[in-house]
Design brief:
mainly alpha; 238 residues; single chain; globular
Length: 238
C-alpha cells in the first residue's frame, strides 16, 4: 500500500501540498510537554472499561497508526487537494482543542502490569515507558484516525475505503484494548471530529486555495533568496 502510494506521489504535480504535514510532529512536541505537566488526573473508568480485557496483540494497530496517518493524508492529497486541506486543518484544530483540554482537565489511566517477555509485551512496555498515563481525554490516536476515516470516500476507491475503515476501527479499538485510553476518550474524540467538521466545511473554496498556496510561496521566496545569495557570492569572488 505505502509503496504504491509513494509511486503515485512521485508523479504528483502538487507535491508541496504535503509540506503541511510538517506541522504534525511539531504539534506532537506540545503533546509531550502537556504530558509532563500534571502529576495526577481524573479517572474516567466506566463499567465497560472494566469488562474490556488487556489484549497485547492490539499494540500492532496502535503502533501502525503513525504509518496509517501518513498513508491516509497522501491518499487524500492525491484524490482531492481541497478535501486534504480541510482534513489537515480539522486535525490541527482538533489537536489544539485536545491540548487545551489536557491542561484544564487532566486525566489519568491506571495501566495493567505487563508480564512476559514476548515481542508484543515488550513493545507495550516500551510504549508505556515513553508515554506517561496522562492526556487520555480525548485520544489523539482516535482523533487522527477518525478524521482519515471520515474523509475517505467509497466512490474514490473501494479498496482504499475498506482499508482506511477496517484498519481505522482496529486502531480505535487498540487504544482501549492496550489500556492507553478509556472508552469515553474514544467517544469524545469522534464527537470532536464531527463538531470540527461542521466548522471546516464552512471554509470557502477560495480560502482553501490560499492555504494550499502557502507552501509554494514559502519555497519560492526561499529559492529567490538562495539565488540572490549565490549571485552576491559570485560577484564578490570576481
Amino acid at each position: 500500500m505505502l509503496k504504491r502510494v509513494i509511486n503515485e506521489v512521485k508523479k504528483y504535480e502538487y507535491k508541496l501540498d504535503l509540506l503541511w504535514l510538517i506541522l504534525f510532529p511539531m504539534f506532537n512536541v506540545i503533546y509531550f510537554i502537556t504530558n509532563h505537566i500534571h502529576k495526577e488526573g481524573f479517572d474516567l473508568t466506566i463499567a465497560l472499561d472494566r469488562m474490556i480485557p488487556f489484549v497485547p496483540i492490539f499494540i500492532i494497530p496502535y503502533v501502525y497508526w503513525y504509518l496509517y496517518m501518513i498513508i491516509g493524508f497522501l491518499i487524500l492529497s492525491l484524490n482531492d487537494r481541497k478535501k486534504y486541506m480541510r482534513c489537515i486543518l480539522g486535525l490541527y484544530l482538533g489537536m489544539f482543542f485536545s491540548y487545551t483540554i489536557y491542561l484544564i482537565f487532566p486525566t489519568e489511566i491506571v495501566r495493567p502490569t505487563v508480564t512476559g517477555n514476548g515481542i508484543l509485551s515488550s513493545i507495550v512496555k516500551i510504549i508505556y515507558s515513553l508515554d506517561r498515563p496522562f492526556n487520555c481525554f480525548p485520544s489523539l490516536h482516535v482523533l487522527g484516525t477518525y478524521f482519515i476515516m471520515r474523509y475517505t470516500k467509497k466512490e474514490n476507491s473501494q479498496y482504499v475505503y475498506y482499508y482506511t475503515q477496517t484498519v481505522g476501527i482496529l486502531i480505535i479499538l487498540s487504544t482501549i484494548f492496550i489500556k492507553q485510553h478509556f472508552v469515553l476518550d474514544a467517544v469524545a474524540s469522534m464527537l470532536i471530529v464531527e463538531l470540527i467538521n461542521i466548522i471546516v466545511k464552512k471554509i470557502s473554496e477560495e480560502n482553501l486555495e490560499k492555504y494550499l498556496k502557502i507552501p509554494y510561496e514559502i519555497v519560492e521566496r526561499l529559492t529567490h533568496k538562495s539565488q540572490k545569495f549565490s549571485e552576491v557570492s559570485s560577484n564578490e569572488k570576481e
